[in-house]
Amino acid sequence: MTDASTRARELVESTYRSDSRRVLATLVRLLGDFDVAEEALHDAFAAALEQWPVDGVPANPRAWLVSAGRFRAIDHIRRRARFDARHAEIAAELESHVPISVHGGDDDEIPDDRLRLIFACCHPALAIEAQVALTLRTVGGLTTEEIARAFLVPAPTLAQRIVRAKNKIRDARIPYEIPGQAELPERIDAVLAVIYLIFNEGYSATFGDELTRADMCAESIRLARMLAELHEDSEVDGLLALMLLHDSRRAARIAGDGEPILLDDQDRTLWDQAKIREGITLTTRALASRRVGPYALQAAIAAVHAEARTAAETDWGEIVGLYDVLLRIHESPVVELNRAVAIAMRDGETRGLELIDSLMQHGELAGYYLAHSARGALLLRADRKDEAIISYKTARSLATQLQEQRFLDRRLAELGERSQRG
Amino acid sequence: MKYLCLIYDEESLWQKMSPDEMGKVMGEYNAFGEDIKASGHFIGGNALQPTSSATTIRVRNGKTITSDGPFAETKEQLGGYYLIEAKDLNDALQVAGRIPGAKLGSVEVRPIMVFNS
Question: Who has the most CB within 10 Å: A16, A104, A273, A350?
C-alpha cells in the first residue's frame, strides 16, 4: 500500500471520529428517518474507504460524505421500488428535495442539523430513559454497549429502548425541528435536564467503574459545549459552568479506598484550575443575562466554593444570598436544606439547627437521609456528640446507596459507635 | 398526518358541575371547535355519553360475551375525541393542549395508522 493511500485511510478514520455525528445529523434531516440515515452513514464511509485511497481525498470530506450517503440511500430505496411501488414515490420525493448543504459552498454543514437532532432525541413525548439513551447513541455517538454499561442495563434492553424511541419518532412523527420561540425555553430545559442527568449518573452514581463514569461526565460536558455553540442561552452556559465546576473537583473527591471526601476535607490543590476558570467565566456571563435560572445560580454557588483557597475562606454570606435567590425561582426542600447549612456556616450552628428542625417538622425532609446527616454534622460542631450520634443513626437507617451507608458507618465508627446494619 | 385526540376525565366532575360551570366549559369547547375548524386541523369529533351507557362485547371461540360497562374501570374515563389533521406531533400536541378537557383531565394523542395498499 502506498503512503498516499495509507494517509487516505487514516483520514477516513479520523473523519469518522470527528465528523460522523454531523454527517448523520444532516442525513437524518435529508432522509427523514434514523435507520435509513444510519445505513446511509455507513455506506458513505464504506465508499470513502474504497474511493479516497484511489481517487484522492475530496476537498470537502464532510460534504462528500453527506452527498454519497444521500445518493446511496436514494439508490437503495429505488431498488426496493421494483418490488413495491410506494418506494418509487419516496425516492422521487427525496431526490426533488435538494439540500443546500450538499451543493458545495464553504459552509458544508448546517449547524442547526445537530440542534434539530438533539431536540428530536430529547422530545418530551419520549420517556426520559429513552431520551438519555437516544441522545448518547445518536448525538454522542456512543455504542449501545457503552451506554448499557454506564447505566447498568443489559445491552439488549438498552438496544430495545433505542429502537422503540426511534419507532415512536417515526410513527408519531416527532419533527426534526428547532422549536419556535414560544416553546423554546421549555424545550431547552428538557434538553438540559437530559444532559444534567447524564452528568449526575457519571458524577454521583455508585455503580460502574471509575472510567465509564468519567466518560459520562466528559460526554455531558461535550454535549453542553456543543449546545452552547449552537444556541446562545444563559441556562446552557449555567449548566456547562455547573458541570465544569463540579468536575474540577474530580481528583480530590474520592479517597484511595473509593470513599467520597467531603468538600471541607478535600485537598484543594488537586482541583482542576482550567475547568474552574472556564466555569467562572461562563457563570459570570450567565448571571449578566436577563434570564438567570437555576443552573446559573447553582453554578454561582459552586463558583464561590471554587474561589475559596481553603474551606475556612468560603464566603458563606454570598452563598446564603445565592440560595435565597434560587429558592425564589426554584422552591425545593433540598435547596432549603442547603440554605440552612449555609446559614449555619455563616451565623453559627444554633441558628442552622433551628432552621433544619423547623424544616423537618413540616415537609418531606424528615425522610431524607442527608437532612439527618447534615443535622448530625452541625450537632457535632456544636459539641453535642450524643445527639449527633442519634442523627447519624437515623441518617444511616434512611440511606439507600452503598457509598452513603459506608460513609455514615465510618462517621459513626469515628464517634465510637457501632452502626446498626439496616 | 392524522391524529386522534382521546379526552379522558372523571365523569363525576361533570355530574357535580353547576349549570353555570357546565355552560362555561361547553362555551370553551365550542370556541375551541370553531378555532380548529378555522385553522384547518379539524376533521371530526364527538362527545360520548357516560360509561354507564357503555356495553363491552367479546367473541371467544365463536361465543359472544356481552357485559355492562367500559372495557376497563379507571379513574378517568374516555369522554370524547377529536380527529385532527396536523403537520407533525408538535403541531398535534399544540392543538391537543388547547382542548378544554386537558385542564380537567388528560388528552391522549395517537397517530392514525396508515396502511399502504
Answer: A16
Using CB atoms within 10 Å of the CB of residue B46, give its burial: 0 to 12 exposed, 13 to 18 middle, 19+ buried: exposed
Burial of residue A155, with CB atoms counted within 10 A of its CB: 0-12 exposed, 13-18 middle, 19 or more buried: middle
Q: Which of A375, A410, A78 is CA-nearest to residue A257? A: A410
Q: What ipTM was predicted for this assembly?
A: 0.84
Asked if B108 is an interface residue toward chain A (Cβ–Cβ < 8 A), one would say: no
Q: For residue range A201-246, list pLDDT tens digits in order.
A: 788 765 555 666 788 889 899 999 988 988 889 999 999 999 999 9
Question: Taking CB atoms and an 8 Å limit, are A173 and B93 in contact across chains?
Answer: no
Let me know if A207 is exposed, middle or buried by CB neighbors in 10 A (0-12, 13-18, 19+): middle
Letter string b/e over residues A259-275, b meaning 16 or more CB atoms within 10 A of that residue's CB: eeeeeeebeeeebbeeb
CB A346 within 8 A of CB A316: yes
Query: Who wins on pLDDT, A303 or A34?
Result: A303
How distant is the alpha carbon of residue A274 from its chain centre? Answer: 20
Round to whole Å and give the CA distance between A26 and A116. Answer: 9
Contact A173 B88 (CB under 8 A): yes
Residue A274 DSSP code: H
Nearest to A109 by CA among A48, A27, A47, A36: A27
The closest of A117, A136, A123 to A31, measured between CA atoms, is A117
Rounded Cα gap, residues A305 and A254, in angstroms: 18
Q: Is residue A322 a contact partner of residue A331, using CB atoms and an 8 Å limit?
A: no
Give SS3 for B80: strand
Delimit the domains of chain A by residue range: 3-107, 325-422
> What whole-number distance in Å separates Cα of residue A96 and Cα of residue A380?
73
Whole-structure pTM value: 0.79
CA distance B58 to chain A (A): 29
Kindly report the CATH number that applies to the domain delimited by A325-422. Answer: 1.25.40.10
Q: Is the separation of the CB atoms in A164 and A174 below 8 Å?
A: no
CB burial of residue A352 (10 Å; 0-12, 13-18, 19+): buried
Contact A114, A107 (CB under 8 A): no
Shortest distance between the Cα of A293 and any Cα of chain B, in A, equals: 25
C-beta atoms of B111 and A171 within 8 A? yes
Q: How far is CA A7 from CA A13, A61, A70, A355, in A?
A: 10, 14, 25, 66
| Amino acid at residue number B78 | L
Number of residues in chain B: 117
B112 interface with A at CB cutoff 8 Å: no
Cβ atoms of A304 and A317 closer than 8 Å: no
What is the amino acid identity at position A210? E
pLDDT at A109: 47
Report the C-alpha gap between A241 and A284 in whole angstroms.
Answer: 9
In chain B, the residue whose alpha carbon lies closest to the alpha carbon of A179 is: B90
